[in-house]
Amino acid sequence: MFGQDLSLKNSGLFLFLTLLVLSPLLAVEFPRFLAYIPLVGFLCFIPFLKSFKSLSDFKNFFLGVGAAFLFIGIHTYFISASPDASERFLKLLPILIFSIAFLCLLKNLPLLNTKKLLEVLMVTSSLSALLICFELITGGMLYSLIRRGSEEDGVHLAVFNRGSVFALLLFLASFFLYSRKDNKLIYLLFMPFIALLFLTQSQSVQIGFVFAILFYLLFPFKNQIALSVAFALFAVHALILPFVMPAIYDAVPYLGDTPILKSGFANHRLEIWDFISQKIQTNPWVGHGLEFTRGYEGFQPRGIYFHWDSILHPHNFVLQVWIELGVIGVLFLISFVCFLMLEIRKMEHSVQKSALAILFTLLLLNSFSYGLWQSWWLGFMFIISGLFLLVSYQSRDYKEEGANSSAG
User: pTM (2 decimals)?
Assistant: First the structure.
């Protein structure tokens, strides 16, 4: 189905591809399952590693990742004031290591029919959106049945937000990568997502849908200056955000009261970012440690929209890195985004355009939605990254094989 040779010796590869195409449907009811897909991929791809020399292309990447891990480890055990930092670091480390290894092993896979894979991913993602619409209309009927009515107060429909975001971005990534956009039938697969936009409680889905499509259609990807400006804006914003956020909150207190923003809890977000930024300024150099906000109960919100002295996470990945790891952590973050953009620039234009659209959409969603270290969210981002790397490697290998055949 996905390639020319999926015999018993490649059963691991078949298992992973099957799991991948089913992941949008499974994520509706079991979103935490996403954290384990890269681990499964790593285990399934080990037989394709012929030698460790094949990983030499990643040596600079490994050095950067190793430096980041070393910094976080030293920070966690010698600097951090957070009592949860060491426990969280030990939980995150295997997830990140196996997920990074999963991405590196993608280069060793045999030639696959990526066109067919993208088609199946679009179909299962669209079916996932249809399933979520059903759950939202019925008040989570299947979710409740699977858990045998364990939700005493009924199903909180926000539980479907994570599956909705994953299905949407996996669909858009597959659609952007798909070469036959002249096929009118694939546009019918958008219909469940259009319905989902009106039914969901997730602003991430609504904003992500609009932003990703507009960015893909309108951004001048071939213009190097435009890409440099986009990165520069991100870098400057990351460096100054906690120092300007209180002033922004003072300057636009009415923003949170506009109906469209109030329905999306923009008022709460603004106040959260305000008191998080003030705490960052008390120790901007090294921060306060991983998961600091989860256990800290001394925040001082202004009490206009937010009335508690604690918050699980800052709802902004830049502020989360600032408060946990300080300016050094933010410099690592900026360097990592720079690395991603440089690597994407090495891909074919069609893959490059798609990858940049999804990258900037993820940067946007990370700016107001989920906690950066949530395992399902990390798994989600590694899965999306893996899809782009797989298509990029496969298209390169396909061309090289074609050239060799012609020469022969």
Answer: 0.91
